[in-house]
Amino acid sequence: MPITRAHIHSVLDAYLNEHPYEKEDLAVAISLLEDGAELASRKEFRGHATAGAVLVNPHGQVLHIHHRVLDKWLLPGGHLEESDNSLQDAALRELTEETGIQAGSVAMARILPVHIDVHPIPANDAKDEPAHLHIDFRFVFRTTARDVTLQEEEVTDFAWHEIDEIPGDTLRQRVRAVLAPR
């Protein structure tokens, strides 16, 4: 069953219950949901949901991939698909597709997103896509896997970086908090 507006809304609400001070940062997502937008649809060009994975190895390093089209080092992630049942499933699927790391060797560290980021995506004439927003729901996963097999259509390289190299102070601090011993 595809991801529903209700699922996205409930994940966003749960996230905002933990981080109410981010409501202004996520105003566009809230507004789109209130307007009835189908955020699970890649064709919703006012903005649509994507899912990302922060994958951490036993050494506390985070997997980064080099995205072919954007020519940037990013965390694995991407668009939602009809086969995804939840945002968490989408993040795991994207992770396995882009890196070849099997889902069986990955464990979710936290059920809720560690961070939700809204960022602009430039127009892509080749895909007939105007500039739009991605509302990226980012989840933390752990793995002991070592082998990475890149999806070469989208990814040109990978590297394990220290947590200090995660882009964005908020994301970096929250990943540290999730990984801290209790």
UniProtKB/TrEMBL annotation:
Coiled coil: none annotated. InterPro entries: Nudix_hydrolase, NUDIX_hydrolase-like_dom_sf, NUDIX_hydrolase_dom. Keywords: Hydrolase. It comes from the Bacteria. Pfam families: NUDIX. Residues 46-182 form the Nudix hydrolase domain. Gene3D superfamilies: Nucleoside Triphosphate Pyrophosphohydrolase. This is NUDIX hydrolase.
